[in-house]
TrEMBL record, chain A:
<feature type="transmembrane region" description="Helical">
    <location>
        <begin position="107"/>
        <end position="129"/>
    </location>
</feature>
<dbReference type="Pfam" id="PF00528">
    <property type="entry name" value="BPD_transp_1"/>
</dbReference>
<keyword id="KW-0472">Membrane</keyword>
<dbReference type="InterPro" id="IPR000515">
    <property type="entry name" value="MetI-like"/>
</dbReference>
<keyword id="KW-1133">Transmembrane helix</keyword>
<feature type="transmembrane region" description="Helical">
    <location>
        <begin position="176"/>
        <end position="196"/>
    </location>
</feature>
<protein>
    <submittedName>
        <fullName>Peptide ABC transporter permease</fullName>
    </submittedName>
</protein>
<feature type="transmembrane region" description="Helical">
    <location>
        <begin position="12"/>
        <end position="30"/>
    </location>
</feature>
<keyword id="KW-0813">Transport</keyword>
UniProtKB/TrEMBL annotation, chain B:
<keyword id="KW-0067">ATP-binding</keyword>
<dbReference type="GO" id="GO:0016887">
    <property type="term" value="F:ATP hydrolysis activity"/>
</dbReference>
<keyword id="KW-0029">Amino-acid transport</keyword>
<dbReference type="GO" id="GO:0006865">
    <property type="term" value="P:amino acid transport"/>
</dbReference>
<feature type="domain" description="ABC transporter">
    <location>
        <begin position="12"/>
        <end position="262"/>
    </location>
</feature>
<keyword id="KW-0547">Nucleotide-binding</keyword>
<dbReference type="InterPro" id="IPR027417">
    <property type="entry name" value="P-loop_NTPase"/>
</dbReference>
<dbReference type="InterPro" id="IPR050319">
    <property type="entry name" value="ABC_transp_ATP-bind"/>
</dbReference>
<dbReference type="GO" id="GO:0005886">
    <property type="term" value="C:plasma membrane"/>
</dbReference>
Length: 314, 549
C-alpha cells in the first residue's frame, strides 16, 4: 500500500515539474514579453535605452536556463514573483481571484455529477424504450454545444427574455446560476455517457441475475448492486474531466464577466504576463494532480478488491 | 403422463412451452413445445449441448429471460398456478422464496463490492424473513449449514477473498435461505474443479433430502446428470429428444441423439479412445524422448512487494516419448499452466532444465528462442478468445508462416488450404471470420494454426474443455488421427480426468506444484499412488452408470 502511495506521489510530482517546464519554455518562446508590451507603449514616451534598463531590472535578458532555475527556485519557496502588468505579487492576485473560481468550479462539478447520474439512472429505470432513447441522446447533444455559445444563449433566454436571472447587480448566488449551468453541461455529457454504458454493462453481469432471482425488484437491484459497480469506473473519468473543468472555467468566466482565475488568465494572456500565466499553469496542474491523486487513493477505499494485499494465484 | 391420482400437485409443470428471441429482425424460436414436470423432492436433469435451449427454459421458469426473449406459448405451473404470464412484481414474490437459483459461474455471480454477509442477508431482507439484528445470526447459521469454515469471518469477507468452491457454497446458502420448493441449478459446477464439483453436488443432494426441495439440474454433462437425477429430460435444438427415469434412459435410450450423447460422454467410456501406446505402430524408435523436464522449479515474487516468493512448481520431472500423449492433470493452482508456460519458453524457470527435441531451453535467447517456437505450438482452451476476431480464417492460419520464413504467396495458400482440409474445415471457411464459426470449428482453426508450422510437439492447454461433449469427441478423434498420421507429440493439460484417461499414454498428476503421481494411464488409474489421485478418480462423474451397466 505504501509502495502504491509513493508511486502515485512520484508521478504527481513529475507531472507538476513537466507542466512547469513545458509552460516555461512555451512562454519564453513567445515573441516579445510583458515588459515590452507595457513599456513600449508610445504614451509613456520611454526611449529604447530606458526600456533596456527596465528589462535589465526585471532580469528579462538573462540566459533562459538561469531564468528557469531562478523561477523554479522561487516557486519551490512559494514565491510566484511579480506581475509586470499590475505591479503586485502574483500570489496576491491569485488569492483575490481564486475563491470565485473555486466556488464556480465546485458547484459546476456537483451539478454535472447530478445531471449525469440523473440522466443515467432515469434512462435505466424508464420502462419506455422511446423515453430511454430520448434521454440517452441528451449527452451527445450536450457534448456538441460550445461553452461560449451556451453561455450567451442562457443569458439571452433567462436574463433578457424571461428576466428570471438579473444581469445588473445580481446577488452573490444569483450571479452564479447561469455560469454554473454553462460549466456543468459539457462535463455532465461525457460523464453521463460513461455511466450509461457502465450501467448497461453491469446489468448483464451474472450477479445481477442472482439478485433478481432472490426476488429483488429492478429498483433494488439498480441502487444496491448496479450503482456502486457502475460508478467506480466513472470516477476515473471524473478525475480526467477535471481538466475540462479548468478550461471551461476560463471561457465561462470570460462570457459572464466573473472575476476569477479564468478572467485573470484571459487578461494575462492578452498582456503576455508570463509570471501570472506561469503561476496559473502550475496552480491548475497542482489542482489536477491533487484531484487525480484523491481519485487514485479513493479506489481502494471504495473497491474491496483493490484493498487486499494481492495474493499470488497461479 | 397425466397422473391425477398423485396426492400433491407437481412442484413444477411445464406444458408446451415455446420461447423465442428477437434477434433484431424477427422472433426466432429456440424452445419448441417443451413439456415436463417435477414432483416434490425430485431431481430432474435438463441435459443438452449449448444452444439446446436448456438454459433458456430454466430462465423462463424463474422469469429471468433476457430482454429480447419472449414466451410464445404454453404454461409454467408452479404448484398448479400458471406463472408464465405473471408481471415482474408478481414474480418477485415467488423468486427466492418459492424458486431459487444456483448459477453457473460462482466467480461472477456475487457482487464484488458487497460482503458475503450482506449478499446472503439480502434475500432475508427482501422477503421480510428477517430484519435488523436478526439477519446476522441467520446468515451465519446458513453459511455454517453449507459447510463454510469460520462462518462469522466469511460473512465479513468479500467474494474475491473466497475460492470458487466457497463462493458456490455461498450461492447455495442464498438459494436455500428461504427453503424454496424448487432450486434451479444451472450448470452449478461446470466452472469448478472435479473434487470441488463432487463436494458441491453432494451438498445440494444433502440439502435436498433435508428440506424436501425439488431440483432442476441444468447440465451439459451427462455424467453429472446420471449420478444425480431421478429423471432426465434430453433437449436438442429446443425440442425434447427423450424424457424418462434416468436408469431407463441410460440403459435403453430411445432417441439416436441420446445414444450419441452417451457414446461421446468421456465419463462413460470405460475404455481408452485409442489403443495403448505400446500396441500402436510407431513411426519412430520408442525410446526417443522428445520432452525432458528435469527438476523444474518456478518461483513468483508476490505482487504486494514484501519480497516473499511463491513457489508455483516445485521440482517437477517427467519425460515424453515421441509420438505419444502426455497429460498434465491437476486442479486450479496446481501449477499446470505454469509448467507449460515454461516448456514453451514463455518464462525462464527458477531452477531445473527443460529439453525439447535435444535442445536445452535455457540456452535459448532472443532470435534462437523465437526460431525454437516452430517446434512447439500451443492450442488454447478458449476458442473464442484465442482467435483474432478481425482476421479471416486464412490469415489466422497463415500468420505463423509469415513469422517464420519467406514462403511465396501461392505456396503459402496451398499449405493453408491443405492444413484446413486436414483438420476437417470446409473450403468456404477460409474467408470467414471467427464469429461466423461454431466453437468446434474455431478449435479446428486453432489446431490448424498450430500445425501449419509442422511442429514436433503440440501443447493442448484445456483444448477441449470449453466444448460440448459431442464436439469434444470429434476434436479428440481429430487429434488422435493427426497424431498417428504426423507422428505428433502431445502435451495435454486438463482438469478432466475422464478425457485424460481416454487419450493419454502417460500422465503426471500435480498438486500444489508437486508431482504426486506419474506413469502410464493404466498405472495411474488402476494403481493410484496417492490419496489425491484416488480422490480425483472418485470425483469423475458418471460412476453410478458405470456401476449400473
Amino acid at each position: 500500500m505504501s509502495g502504491y502511495l509513493l508511486n502515485r506521489l512520484g508521478q504527481a510530482l513529475f507531472v507538476l515539474w513537466a507542466a512547469f517546464t513545458i509552460s516555461f519554455v512555451l512562454l519564453q518562446a513567445m515573441p516579445g514579453d510583458a515588459v515590452l508590451i507595457k513599456f513600449q507603449n508610445p504614451e509613456l514616451g520611454l526611449n529604447p535605452q530606458q526600456i533596456a534598463d527596465i528589462r535589465a531590472s526585471y532580469a528579462a535578458d538573462s540566459a533562459i536556463w538561469v531564468q528557469y532555475l531562478q523561477t523554479i527556485g522561487r516557486f519551490l519557496t512559494g514565491n510566484f514573483g511579480y506581475s509586470v502588468q499590475a505591479g503586485v505579487p502574483v500570489s496576491t492576485m491569485l488569492a483575490a481571484h481564486l475563491p470565485a473560481t473555486l466556488k464556480l468550479a465546485s458547484l459546476g462539478f456537483i451539478l454535472a455529477a447530478v445531471f449525469a447520474v440523473a440522466i443515467a439512472f432515469v434512462s435505466s429505470l424508464t420502462p419506455f424504450a422511446w423515453l430511454r432513447g430520448a434521454i440517452q441522446s441528451v449527452p451527445s447533444l450536450f457534448i456538441s454545444i460550445p461553452t461560449f455559445w451556451l453561455g450567451i444563449m442562457l443569458i439571452q433566454i433567462f436574463s433578457f427574455r424571461l428576466k428570471l436571472v438579473p444581469v445588473i447587480n445580481p446577488g452573490p448566488w444569483q450571479e452564479l446560476i447561469l455560469p454554473v449551468i454553462t460549466l456543468a453541461v459539457p462535463i455532465a455529457a461525457p460523464l453521463a455517457q460513461v455511466l450509461v454504458r457502465n450501467i448497461d454493462d453491469v446489468l448483464t453481469r451474472p450477479f445481477v441475475a442472482v439478485a433478481r432471482a432472490k426476488g429483488a425488484t429492478r429498483h433494488w437491484v439498480l441502487w444496491r448492486h448496479v450503482a456502486k459497480n457502475a460508478l467506480l469506473p466513472t470516477l476515473t473519468i471524473a478525475g480526467v474531466l477535471f481538466g475540462e473543468l479548468i478550461a471551461g472555467a476560463v471561457v465561462t468566466e470570460t462570457v459572464f464577466g466573473l472575476n476569477g482565475i479564468g478572467g485573470l488568465t484571459e487578461r494575462a494572456v492578452g498582456s503576455q504576463d508570463a509570471a501570472v500565466l506561469q503561476a496559473i499553469v502550475v496552480l491548475s496542474a497542482l489542482a489536477f494532480v491533487i484531484i487525480n491523486l484523491i481519485v487514485d487513493l479513493l479506489f481502494p477505499v471504495l473497491d474491496p478488491r483493490l484493498r487486499t494485499k494481492a495474493g499470488a494465484t497461479a | 403422463m397425466n397422473s391425477s391420482i398423485t396426492p400433491y400437485p407437481p412442484v413444477l409443470e411445464i406444458e408446451n412451452l415455446s420461447i423465442s428471441y428477437n434477434d433484431g429482425v424477427a422472433h426466432r424460436r429456440v424452445v419448441h413445445d417443451v413439456s415436463f414436470r417435477i414432483e416434490p423432492g425430485e431431481v430432474v436433469a435438463l441435459v443438452g449441448e449449448s444452444g439446446s435451449g436448456k438454459t433458456t427454459t430454466a430462465q423462463s421458469i424463474i422469469g429471468l429471460l433476457s430482454a429480447n426473449g419472449r414466451i410464445e406459448g404454453g404454461n409454467i405451473k408452479l404448484n398448479g398456478t400458471d406463472i408464465s404470464r405473471w408481471s415482474d412484481r408478481q414474480l418477485d414474490t415467488v423468486r427466492g422464496a418459492k424458486i431459487s437459483l444456483v448459477p453457473q459461474d460462482p466467480a461472477s455471480s456475487l457482487n464484488p463490492v458487497k460482503t458475503i454477509g450482506a449478499q446472503v442477508g439480502e434475500i432475508l431482507r427482501i422477503h421480510g424473513a428477517a430484519s435488523g439484528r436478526d439477519v446476522e445470526p441467520q446468515v451465519i447459521s446458513l453459511l455454517e449449514r453449507v459447510g463454510l469454515s469460520e462462518p462469522a469471518l466469511r460473512a465479513r469477507q468479500y467474494p474475491h477473498e473466497l475460492s470458487g468452491g466457497m463462493r458456490q457454497r455461498v450461492l447455495i446458502a442464498i438459494a436455500i435461505a428461504l427453503k424454496p420448493q424448487l432450486i434451479i441449478a444451472d450448470e452449478p459446477t461446470s466452472a469448478l474443479d472435479v473434487t470441488v464439483q463432487k463436494r458441491i453436488l453432494d451438498l445440494i443432494d444433502e440439502l435436498r433430502t433435508e428440506y424436501g426441495t425439488s431440483v432442476l439440474l441444468v447440465t451439459h454433462d451427462l455424467g453429472v446428470a446420471a449420478d444425480r437425477a431421478d429423471r432426465l429430460v434430453v433437449l436438442q435444438g429446443g425440442r425434447i429428444q427423450e424424457l424418462g427415469a434416468t436408469k431407463v434412459v441410460l440403459a435403453a435410450p430411445r432417441s439416436a441423439y441420446t445414444r450419441q450423447l452417451i457414446v461421446d460422454a468421456p465419463s462413460f467410456s470405460a475404455v481408452a479412445r485409442k489403443a495403448p501406446a505400446t500396441a500402436r505402430e510407431k513411426p519412430v524408435p520408442s525410446d526417443d524422448d522428445v520432452v525432458i523436464v528435469e527438476g523444474l522449479v518456478q518461483d513468483f515474487v508476490r505482487s504486494d512487494g514484501d519480497g516473499k516468493s511463491f513457489r508455483a512448481v516445485d521440482g517437477l520431472s517427467f519425460r515424453v516419448r515421441r509420438g505419444t500423449t502426455h497429460s498434465i492433470v491437476g486442479e486450479s493452482g496446481s501449477g499446470k499452466t505454469t509448467t507449460i508456460r515454461a516448456i514453451v519458453g514463455f518464462q525462464k524457470p527458477t531452477a531445473g532444465s527443460i529439453e525439447i527435441d535435444g535442445t536445452d531451453l535455457s540456452q535459448l535467447r532472443g532470435e534462437t528462442l523465437r526460431q525454437f517456437r516452430r517446434k512447439i505450438q500451443l492450442v488454447y482452451q478458449n476458442p473464442y478468445g484465442s482467435l483474432d476476431p478481425r482476421q479471416a480464417v486464412f490469415d489466422i492460419v497463415a500468420e505463423p508462416l509469415l513469422n517464420f520464413g519467406r514462403l511465396a504467396r501461392p505456396a503459402r495458400e496451398e499449405k493453408v488450404r491443405a492444413i484446413l482440409n486436414r483438420v476437417g474445415l470446409p473450403e468456404a471457411a477460409l474467408s470467414r471470420r471467427p464469429h461466423a464459426l461454431s466453437g468446434g470449428q474455431r478449435q479446428r482453426v486453432a489446431i490448424a494454426r498450430a500445425l501449419v508450422l509442422d511442429p514436433d510437439v503440440v501443447v493442448l492447454d484445456e483444448a477441449v474443455s470449453a466444448l460440448d461433449v459431442t464436439v469434444q469427441a470429434r476434436i479428440l478423434d481429430l487429434l488422435d488421427e493427426l497424431q498417428r498420421d504426423l507422428g505428433l507429440t502431445y502435451l495435454f493439460v486438463s482438469h478432466d480426468l475422464a478425457v485424460v484417461r481416454q487419450i493419454s499414454d502417460t500422465i503426471s498428476v500435480l498438486k500444489d506444484g508437486r508431482l504426486v503421481d506419474g506413469g502410464t494411464v493404466e498405472d495411474v488409474f488402476e494403481r493410484p499412488g496417492s490419496d489425491y489421485t484416488r480422490e480425483l478418480i472418485n470425483a469423475i462423474p458418471g460412476q453410478k452408470r458405470a456401476a449400473l451397466v
